[in-house]
Amino acid sequence: GAGVSQSPSNKVTEKGKDVELRCDPISGHTALYWYRQSLGQGLEFLIYFQGNSAPDKSGLPSDRFSAERTGGSVSTLTIQRTQQEDSAVYLCASSPRDSGHSGNTIYFGEGSWLTVV
Amino acid sequence: DAKTTQPPSMDCAEGRAANLPCNHSTISGNEYVYWYRQIHSQGPQYIIHGLKNNETNEMASLIITEDRKSSTLILPHATLRDTAVYYCIVRVYGSSNTGKLIFGQGTTLQVKP
């Protein structure tokens, strides 16, 4: 597709269960980001992938959160043993390769709404 | 932490120009200023970005002061559909050159008929 694609668009899960959220970046984009937005709050950076470089995981809130990116394209964000405070919309974004302090545009998907009950 | 300061809310009359201010007094010389907006619960929409010079595209204009410590986003003829939360962001580069966007709370723009 032309934009960043995320799935599922909505997910309701029981507390304690694991969930996986998927992101398909724009074709050719090497940089991929995950953000989280709780209800009524701003966007919180989670993790960043750039090509084959080690990811920037500095925003992951706990060791229950992890993400991987296979083949430099699709990414999966995994939340283990979900808690109610994990309820939020999880947004993925992608951009062309970052080269130093470049001014590339970052494009966002529509997000995956997660509700933990 | 976000490197920008924005007013929490603003109103604008439909058809008039909306001028949204942003302070970024600690910006570094090679850091870009980006503007995004978020309508309801949709994903953030890119508007414009700049480094030093003023920029204009089909959506908006970005005016950056000469000292780069502040900027203004201008929507020349606001419509009701421009009602949204507008985020001014300085793109931060850390030791690994991560170009992540750090979002603040933004400005809620209400365009009124």
Walkthrough of the structure:
- With 117 residues, chain A is an all-beta fold.
- In chain A, 0% of the residues lie in helices and 45% in strands.
- Chain A has strands at residues 5-7, 10-13, 19-24, 31-37, 43-50, 65-69, 75-79, 88-95, 107-108, 112-116.
- In chain A, the strands form two sheets. In chain A, strands 2, 4, 5, 8, 9 and 10 form a six-stranded mixed β-sheet that branches.
- The radius of gyration of chain A is 14 Å and the shape is globular.
- Chain A starts with a strand and ends with a strand.
- The mean pLDDT of chain A is 91.
- In chain B, a hairpin with a 5-residue loop joins strand 6 (61-64) and strand 7 (70-75).
- Chain B is globular and about 45 Å long.
- Chains A and B meet through strand 4, strand 5, strand 8 and strand 9 of A and strand 4, strand 8 and strand 9 of B.
Topology:
The complex is a heterodimer of chains A (117) and B (113).
Chain A: E1 5-7, E2 10-13, E3 19-24, E4 31-37, E5 43-50, E6 65-69, E7 75-79, E8 88-95, E9 107-108, E10 112-116
Parallel strand pairs in A: 2-10
Antiparallel strand pairs in A: 1-3, 3-7, 4-5, 4-8, 6-7, 8-9, 8-10
Chain B: E1 9-13, E2 18-23, E3 33-38, E4 45-50, E5 55-56, E6 61-64, E7 70-75, E8 84-93, E9 99-101, E10 107-112
Parallel strand pairs in B: 1-10
Antiparallel strand pairs in B: 2-7, 3-4, 3-8, 5-6, 6-7, 8-9, 8-10
Shape of chain B: globular
Kindly state the number of beta strands of chain A: 10
Provide the structure class of chain B.
mainly beta
Kindly report how far apart the N and C termini of chain B lie. Answer: 36 Å
- Classify the beta-strand content of chain A into a percent band: over 45%
The rounded Rg of chain A comes to 14 Å
Oligomer: heterodimer
Classify the secondary structure makeup of chain A into a structural class.
Answer: mainly beta
Order of helices and strands of chain A: EEEEEEEEEE
Rg result of chain B: 14 Å
Largest interface: A-B, 33 and 29 residues
* Helix-strand pattern of chain B: EEEEEEEEEE
> DSSP helix count of chain A?
0
- Overall mean pLDDT score of chain A? 91
Question: Roughly what percent helix of chain B?
Answer: under 10%
How many helices of chain B? The count is: 0
Number of β-strand runs of chain B:
10
Average pLDDT of chain B works out at 91
| Major sheet details of chain A | 6 strands, mixed
